[in-house]
Amino acid sequence: MRKGNPWLSVLFWTLISLATLFPIYWLFVISVKPAVELFSTPSIWLTEIYWQNYVDVLNNRTLRGYMVNSLVISSGNAVLCTTLGFFACYALSRFDLGGKESIFFWTITNRMAPPAVFLLPLFLLLTQVYRVGDFSLADTRIGMILIYCTFNLPFAIWTLRPTLDGIPKELDEAAYVDGASPWKVITEVVFPLARPGLAVTLILTWVFAWNEYLLAATLTNFNARTLTTGLSEYVTTTGTNWGIMAAISVFTLIPALIVFSLVQRHIVAGLTFGAVKG
Amino acid sequence: MHSKTLGWILLAPTLLILFLFGVVPFIYVVFVSFHQWNPFGANPNMVFNWANNYRRVVFDAQFITSLQVTAAFVFFAVTSQLILGYALAQAFMRDFPGKSFFRTIHTLPLIMAPIIVGSVWKLMTTPSIGIIPNLLSNWFGYDLNIGQSATQAFITTVVMDIWHWTPLVTLTMIAALVSLPPDPFEQAQIDGANRRQIFWHITLPMIRPAILATLFIRLMDAMRTVDEVLMLTGGGPGSATRYVGVHIFKEVFPRTNYGYGSAISVVVLYLTIVVCWLMYVGLIAPRNKGKG
Amino acid sequence: MKPERRPGFLPIQTNWFDRLFISVVLWVALSLFWLRFLEPLGLSIWICVAISLILAAVIIRRG
């Protein structure tokens, strides 16, 4: 630790924090102004708050549908990825499977691949190949839940592996000796001990799925469109409804902020594949 | 102990999903890229046409431009983030009140959806409603219009990326700096080394692993930036901010020329893999070998 | 991975999979370069394929 006037540091970090927070504050300012006031001289201060944009968003049936889709898809995806990731990590950590370290490394390459490259093949596969009779995965919630696994499942495996490796093997061996079935061992011995790690994984996968835009924008038409795609629909070349756009952005941001307050300490580790403990 | 079969059963759903949505699309896109296929064209069937799609890709001026602007974007954004992030981390290495509070605020942009970041910056920089063009013209008489000036649009996307991702670099650097042992620094001070010497000969070599890991992650992410830019500039004006991901989204995907689109996707994937692999082999692997 | 007994000519330690990967990467790079600059001069792409295959064989056996 170097010496120096601590209040200078406080001043410096206050300025940095203002730079960080101001764009978010400005988003809020735009969202609570009536359309006519937007184009008069932009003012930093709020004189009165106008909630109509939020009411309009909530009254819009299409956007309400998008919100439900977003909730269903990200919750379904988070539960699926955390469950499968838990099973996979249990297998990787407790069984002597041939080539398991290669498998572990291979899963993470799935997350590194640029999603833009997969737009076209996923679109073609969903519409033409992955279909049973009349049912195709294109533009369905279940299809999006499965597709989001390509980036969230590797993430879940990557973050859960240390948790599972950290639970002593002797515990499940003792349970097996007592005659417990594998299912009982997983659900009653390992699961309670892994709960904190599982909670963090669940929350972070949820927010990654909630935040996703590119795949949702290209692989859905109407039935499974999410809130992030709804946001881009409000930006048109002819004239953007800025207030509504800001209000949708705030709605999209709120869950992320709640999540942020819950798992703030784990975000950096999550974003760097655990390379940094944050 | 218990059977391996159970292990494979537990692993099976994961492998199946990643196979269906990770491996199959990869094989499929390579397969389609060697075909002429346009369902709405003169011949809607898939016809094998050797490497003709790739013959077009290497002469596609628009695509090559998008590669160039991507490279420029990645270079400027990642370099600034590393320098700025390191400086901020150093500024954090003192005792002052409210440290964890400031750190929390600093982490905030990391959790925001890229599309929201794009939307926030659009609201900040659109000339009619944004605060930045307004202040710039009132205070400095400077005209900021990212819808018209290619340079301004490019710089704005870089600034946006800096705003969004510098905290990641700062936090990884803080983690690295905190874990440094104090002895070498005290010794160097006793020996009369100045601050620059300490930085180049002690700090930098010791946090090199953290810097390289951060650089690697940031490069990979910056190369595939799409959502923010799509929202902020839509790739315009002209091709100033049409980075490869945006190019695929706006120019390749909407056309129904699937064979050609696949060829572009394959080339982008190829370039991504090569860059990551070169980074890994050239920077990260030698360090591990030296260690063990 | 088991380390190789005899060091190859590549600057890094590799196993057969790494060398196959390097060969494919070089093949694609050479092909794209060929399509852009040499094929317009009238050199067939098959020459490039032949060169790449020879290169691949050398890398995989001796790398």
Report on the structure:
The complex is a heterotrimer of chains A (278), B (292) and C (63). Chain A is 73% helix and 1% strand. By secondary structure, chain A is mainly alpha-helical. Chain B has helices at 4-32, 52-57, 61-92, 99-111, 114-125, 131-139, 150-178, 183-190, 195-223, 227-232, 244-252, 258-291; strands at 35-36, 47-48. In chain B, 42% of the residues are buried. Chain C has 63 residues and is mainly α. Chain C has helices at residues 16-38, 45-62. Chain C has one domain (16-62). Chains in contact: A-B, B-C.
Helix content of chain C: 55-70%
Average predicted local confidence, pLDDT of chain C: 79
Distance between the termini of chain B: 32 Å
The protein's oligomeric status is heterotrimer
Low-pLDDT residue spans of chain C: none
Q: Which term fits the overall shape of chain B?
A: globular
What strand line-up does the widest sheet of chain B have? Answer: 1-2
Tell how many strands the DSSP assignment of chain B holds. 2
Largest sheet of chain C: none
Number of domains of chain C: 1
Cα radius of gyration of chain C in angstroms: 14 Å
> Which protein chains make the most extensive interface, counting residues with beta carbons within 8 Å of the other chain's beta carbons?
A-B, 98 and 90 residues
Count of helix runs of chain B: 12
Please write the string of helix (H) and strand (E) elements of chain B: HEEHHHHHHHHHHH
- Structural class label of chain B: mainly alpha
CATH architecture of the largest domain in chain B: Orthogonal Bundle
Strand content of chain C: under 5%
Summary of the model, kept short:
The complex is a heterotrimer of chains A (278), B (292) and C (63). Chain A has helices at 6-31, 35-38, 52-59, 61-94, 100-112, 115-129, 141-165, 169-177, 182-211, 214-219, 227-233, 242-263, 267-271; strands at 131-132, 135-136.
